From TrEMBL:
One Pfam family it belongs to: DUF1611
Protein name: Putative NAD-dependent epimerase/dehydratase family protein
Organism: Luteimonas cucumeris
Domain of life of the organism encoding this protein: Bacteria
Every D-glutamate N-acetyltransferase-like N-terminal domain range: 64-135
Length: 347
């Protein structure tokens, strides 16, 4: 079995965390920090916000020295931007955190380890650096051979629509019911939450399906591997990683994730989001290459932009449209989706 630490080694950095928001302009820019604050609140002592930072996590504002005094061990760079760039301010703040005695971890495409100033600060202070977007070595090309065990994959109409939240919520629900279930992280935020995983968007394209096979190998205990989806088959920039996960995950079950009200694909104003039925069928068709028996078992909506009554009405409309349970994992839970999952795979 894959165990935490195989793909993301975390032996030299630990909670409690200071969550770094920098000068983020909106909530999407701090999704990594928000994910940790939501799923691991007991590990987060505070947030650092630059002078131009707009969003907040509702945690105590503090700098690295205050965080260290409050018991923080590690600063997590919790921001995300197009291209995963580590700008001059992030570099300066990472060095300041290291000089205050904190480890620093990040999930950007630009690596902490590639910056001489950051490396020097870590060395002189005896602190650790961790780049979540550094995949493990030894990933083989996917082979598509059937393997034992049950697997669920979340898929989406777009990026950042709630695939990670949905997957973690399903894990929690299954475990509360006494079922064996394990979240398998494929992105930087998920890796920080789970303590292990493979950042598939940093894997060479030929090996993406192999990475999914590696993170979710044959399972003989009757439990579920719950694989965090990435991107969307309909996003011109990120469809490749979505397809690789569909093939390598060999999913028995799919949950479609969507945010109502989006006007276009994230970062691409010229591309509208796909119709839900079309998107779901495209994902099922792609998944059938390695698992002809794959089933859609639910729809997860991110209704954070809707009033509560409209959110409930939208879920009912989508459930009627697709004939599947539909819920917002954050405000409504996923119990109806999990009920349907277990009924579909009762034998």
């Amino acid at each position: 079995m894959f165990t935490p630490g195989d793909a993301a080694r975390t032996t030299h950095w630990h909670p409690p965390y200071l969550l770094y928001l920098g000068n983020a302009i909106d909530d999407l820019a701090i999704k990594t920090a928000r994910g940790l604050a939501h799923w691991r609140p007991e590990s987060c002592v505070g947030q650092y916000r630059g002078p131009d930072c707009v969003p907040t996590l509702g945690l105590r504002d503090m700098d690295w020295n205050q965080a260290k005094a409050e018991g923080a061990d590690t600063m997590v760079i919790g921001t995300a931007n197009a291209g995963g760039v580590m700008g001059p301010q992030i570099v300066a703040d990472a060095i300041a955190a290291l000089d205050a005695g904190l480890n620093v971890v990040a999930g950007l495409h630009q690596k902490l380890h590639d910056n001489p100033g950051i490396v020097a600060a870590a060395q002189r202070n005896g602190r650790a650096l961790f780049d979540a977007r550094t995949p493990m070595g030894g990933i083989a090309v996917g082979n598509g051979r059937r393997r034992s065990g049950r697997r669920l994959l979340t898929v989406g109409t777009d990026c950042s629509v709630g695939k990670m939240y949905t997957t973690l919520a399903i894990e929690r629900s299954l475990r509360e019911r006494g079922c064996k279930a394990d979240f398998r992280a494929t992105g930087q935020t998920g890796i920080f939450i789970a303590g292990a995983g493979i950042p598939v968007d940093a894997v060479v394209a030929d090996f993406i399906s192999g990475a999914a096979e590696t993170i979710s190998p044959a399972r003989l205990d009757g439990g579920w591997d719950l694989i965090e989806g990435q991107g969307s088959l309909f996003h011109p920039s990120y469809a490749g990683v979505s397809l690789g996960l569909l093939h390598g995950a060999q999913p028995d079950a799919l949950v479609l994730c969507h945010e109502p009200g989006r006007q276009h694909m994230r970062g691409l104003p010229g591309y509208a989001l796909p119709e839900l039925a079309r998107c779901l069928e495209a994902n099922l068709e792609a998944a059938r290459l390695t698992n002809p028996d794959v089933k859609a078992i639910g729809v997860a909506l991110n209704t954070s932009g809707l009033p509560a009554d409209q959110a409930q009405a939208t879920c009912r409309e989508v459930a009627d449209l697709l004939g599947l349970p539909c819920q917002d994992p954050v405000t409504m839970g996923v119990e109806a989706i999990v009920d349907h999952l277990l009924s579909c795979f009762a034998n």
